[in-house]
Prior knowledge:
Structural class: mainly alpha
Amino acid sequence: MYNNGTCTALPKKILKWTGNCIRTSNMADELLWRVQRLFFLNGDQDLSSFLLVDLGMVKFPDYTCNICHHIFKERNDLLEYKEAIRVAQLMDESLDNDNMEMVSRCADLSENRVCSMPTEEDSNLAESPPSFYSCFSSTWVYSKVLTLGVSVYERERR
């Protein structure tokens, strides 16, 4: 079945088993990732859990959801968070590709963003969201990028 290291029957078998497949655009993929992250409140949960519940294969007990705090106060907070996530993803890719120049640039950008963010000293504790929501702030993501950058610098003894 192999001809010069390639298998001509394999693509036909895969198409037979999987059926028709489509390729989504990068923008659609990013939108789906954002919806998934906002629905599950983390980036690690995969869609299989959601699909199993939707198909009725997994049942959760009934509960009442009382939303008393919003994850993002304004649309601008979501956009800042999205930008911070992009920097974190770029940092991960740069580390995988051993691109130390880009790692330094991501760390510098994160430091500049954290230093330029306004402080919320005047916020009222009754109005502030639970501490769990802090991981959905751009400051939290940038701090994780900086922590990773520090560990890279320590490893290089810089």
